[in-house]
Write a structure and sequence with these properties.
The protein has two domains: 191 residues, 3-Layer(aba) Sandwich (Rossmann fold); 173 residues, Glycogen Phosphorylase B (Rossmann fold), CATH 3.40.50.2000. By secondary structure, the protein is an alpha/beta fold.
């Protein structure tokens, strides 16, 4: 298995015999995504960019993909059947295969009606029926991988698609045979993230803001460990920090008591409507290392302490975090080692070294790709011009 993404090259297989087509304004593009925000957000960003250029966008998704408010404004959405064996193993295969087949058939009928120029998949099993339909109709198809590990669905599709867009320069589980079709573009981030990225970072501020976020559902271990770690910091250091913590409502009372015992009056909420703004206003972010979180931290140039979710498929969150650590913009603590003492040590490294904190912010920003959506749209349109 190769682990390097090479070249910004298009597919030039002799048997495909590509023929250039004259660009026509207002083409239709199908995006296939669903399941989690990590797949849906970059698809949403691509949709916005394509529509801004006058194109039509159609989203093919599963039931879970319909549960993300605020995404895909003005986009026609079609729900198709999709399924995964998950933890059920081989016994679930007959039902899974039937669901995928049904989704593929529904997508085929849709594609015959709307005649898209290209079909784009964003990984995860909900993308599979749409991509299989596109491939069966010989439509130009490409995939985007958000993580630093090529996901299972994308590994299955990679030999069959014309282009593979990646968010990281090095991708684990990428076959060497695929490298000639790989395009390292970055992971698209939302417009509100790009707007918030303009906020300056000042490590010399008399007060430093610490943001803790475990995602929309919170992360119980962050809720337990972070307040305890703050209590271990020297009193003079604690007196310089403000804490904003996104945590579950059921943990709120315990977190509040622990913070106040340490002399901290935190802002705690289960949901922040402007999380990008909170992130941009922070000096240190403690978070999981999903693909969108890592991309946003890099674009904004915010130092972070990342705690990868240990049950993430193929341990991809650890690879995501490692990429930002290697760039100098983050520290990573595995969940098994994520204790109050270890976190206090990591916090002290930056809180006691403002120049080091400034350097980490600069390094994180250098690893960001604010033009990822633009570059991905360019690739999608170019791929659609090859008949």
């Amino acid at each position: 298995m190769g682990e390097r993404c090479a070249g910004l090259m298009t597919d030039e297989r002799p048997d495909s015999r590509p023929r250039p087509r004259t660009p026509q304004p207002g083409g239709t593009y199908v995006l296939c995504a669903g399941g989690t925000g990590g797949h849906m957000v970059p698809a949403h960003c691509l949709a916005l960019e394509l529509m801004a250029r006058g194109h039509q966008v159609h989203l093919v998704t599963d039931e879970r993909g319909l549960r993300f408010p605020g995404l895909f404004p003005g986009v026609t959405i079609t729900k198709v059947d999709a399924a995964s064996t998950g933890r059920s193993g081989w016994k679930a295969w007959p039902q899974v295969a039937l669901s995928i087949w049904r989704g593929r058939q529904a997508a085929r009928a849709l594609f015959k009606a709307i005649r898209p120029r290209a079909v784009v998949g964003f990984g995860g099993y909900p993308a599979l029926p749409g991509l299989l339909a596109g491939l069966s109709l010989y439509l130009p198809c490409l995939i985007h991988e958000q993580n630093a590990v090529l996901g299972r669905t994308n590994r299955y599709l990679a030999p069959r698609v014309r282009a593979i867009a990646t968010s990281f320069p090095r991708i684990r589980r990428m076959e060497k045979a695929f490298e000639r079709r790989v395009h390292f573009l970055g992971n698209p981030v939302r417009p509100e993230v790009l707007a918030a990225a303009d906020l300056p970072f000042d490590a010399r501020s008399p007060r430093l803001k610490l943001l803790v976020t475990g995602g929309s559902q919170g992360a119980a271990i962050l809720n337990r460990v972070v307040p305890a770690a703050i209590a271990l910091l020297p009193a003079e250091v604690r007196g310089q920090i403000d804490v904003v913590h996104q945590g579950r409502d059921e943990d709120r009372d315990a977190m509040l008591a622990a913070y106040r015992a340490a002399g901290i009056d935190p802002v705690i909420a289960a949901y922040f409507p402007d999380l990008p703004g909170q992130m941009a206003a922070s000096h240190i972010v403690i978070a999981r290392s999903g693909a969108s979180t890592v991309a946003e931290l890099a674009v904004m140039g915010r130092p972070s302490i990342l705690v990868p979710l240990p049950i993430a498929t193929d341990d991809h969150q650890a690879d995501n975090a490692a990429a930002l650590v290697a760039a100098g913009g983050a520290q990573m603590i595995r969940q098994a080692q994520f204790t109050p003492e270890r976190l206090a040590e990591a916090l002290t490294m930056w809180l006691a070294d403002r120049q080091g904190l400034e350097s980490a912010a600069t390094a994180a920003r250098a690893a960001g790709h604010p033009q990822a959506a633009v570059r991905l749209a360019n690739l999608v349109i170019a791929t659609g011009l090859i008949a």
